[in-house]
Amino acid sequence: FERNGEANFQIEAVDLGNIRKVRIGHDNSGIAAGWFLEKIKIEDLSEAAPEEEGEGEEPSKIIPKVWYALCGRWLSDSEDDGAIQRELPAGPEDGEASLPVIDYTVTVITGDRR
C-alpha cells in the first residue's frame, strides 16, 4: 500500500447483509510490512438503489449501500500497540478516524482516608 493512498478490491461473495464489523490484518511478511489504516469503505453494489429525483431533474443515478470501518491506527508489530490485525465496528457514517493528538496534564489527587 502507498502512503496516503487508496487501494480498491472487488470481491464476489454471498450476501453479507448489514455489515457490523470488519476484521483486517496482514501476515507481517516482507520488509517494513506495517502500514497505517485510516478507514475501510465497503460498497455493496448489488444493493444499489436509485437516488430520489426532483421535479424536472434528470433520471436518478444509482447510489450503492455503503459501510465505513474507521480505524486511525497502525497494523504493525513495531508501531502503536504492535497489533497486525484489528477488528473494527462498521456503520453508515464516514469520518476521519485519526484525530489530532493533544497533550494533556492529568493530576491525581488522593484523599487522607485510611
UniProtKB/TrEMBL annotation:
It comes from Vannella robusta. Residues 1-89 form the PLAT domain. It comes from the Eukaryota. This is PLAT domain-containing protein. PROSITE patterns: PLAT (PS50095). InterPro entries: Inner_ear_hair_cell_LOXHD, PLAT/LH2_dom, PLAT/LH2_dom_sf. Pfam families: PLAT (PF01477).
